[in-house]
Amino acid sequence: MITWTRLTAASLVALGLAAPAVADEITVYTALEEEEIAAYVEAAQKAMPDTEINVLRLSTGKLGARLLAEAGNPQADLIWGWAVSAMMDPQILDMLEPYAAEGVDVLPATFRGEDGKWFAPIGYMGAFCVNTARLEEKGLPMPSSWEDLEDPAFKGEILMPDPNSSGTGYLHVNAVLQSMGEEAGWAQLEAVDPNMAQYTSSGSKPCKSARVGEYTVGISLAFTAMQSVEEGYPLAMVFPEGGVGYELEASGLMASSDNKEAAKAFLDWTMSDDAIDLYQQYKALITIPGVDASQAAEDAGLPADISTILADIDFVEAAGNQDAVKQTWKDKFGR
């Protein structure tokens, strides 16, 4: 378990120091990236000094499996920043209790559950990470769509995450299928498959491999692309024509929690000004009206109105079809 805590009372007593009382302790399950978790928890801990915040970070799929395995004896007090397409599993929703976090009413209805069980002030979106130096060296054209990646010249030059192990992989596949339709979507993915060097288990790895010149194109995350551009890598962030896939990162209160007041206070913090300031550092997709993306996002090419590049995603459909899509993917592309 990745855990951020203050010194415990026992350790302070052992040092001969006075120990402040810790009134509450909460266990938080999340699929957020580790580097952002550290920044968020540090800020939340300052806002909640009497609450010990324990965080377990798992990938999207593993977090769901953990919750279901613990269904008879839940261990988490809340879920924080988890793919809404996973959260909408009826078995998971049954574990949640409606709670209107302070400030959540500013979110458009699209970004919060009608039943009040989840809300999503943030999300993540896909992008093609294109190494411009390798592109020029290989004499390859700049891709602007999935169709462009069919070009035999890209054979062995593309990495993509496997949707069976990566939420990022699933958001890309889901966007293609929902934008093009099932038949045309699978045909498109099959047309690109011969050029794939590898399907990875990590959503960020394709971009990180492309930025250092191991491959030309990494089908990955916009945040990793933005970060790479900011750090000076020869990388272009490309949003495929026809709509880029995205996912909402939802949070909700576990009905079984024994520490609901502290858990609610944490959920309130996720909508606070302090949290929003941090989202601007780490997120390409912020659903809170009036909040601008970071300068780094702008410099990397993120449009001011991201709705112009996002695919039209039905998250209920994405959740319902997830098992079937993953199985079809495995049957077609499993290696």
Automatic annotation (TrEMBL):
GO terms for molecular function: thiamine binding; thiamine pyrophosphate binding. The keyword Secreted does not apply. GO terms for biological process: thiamine transport. Keywords: Signal. One of its GO terms (cellular component) is outer membrane-bounded periplasmic space. Residues 1-23 form the signal peptide. It comes from the Bacteria. The keyword Signal applies. This is Probable iron uptake ABC transporter periplasmic solute-binding protein. It comes from Pseudooceanicola batsensis (strain ATCC BAA-863 / DSM 15984 / KCTC 12145 / HTCC2597) (Oceanicola batsensis).
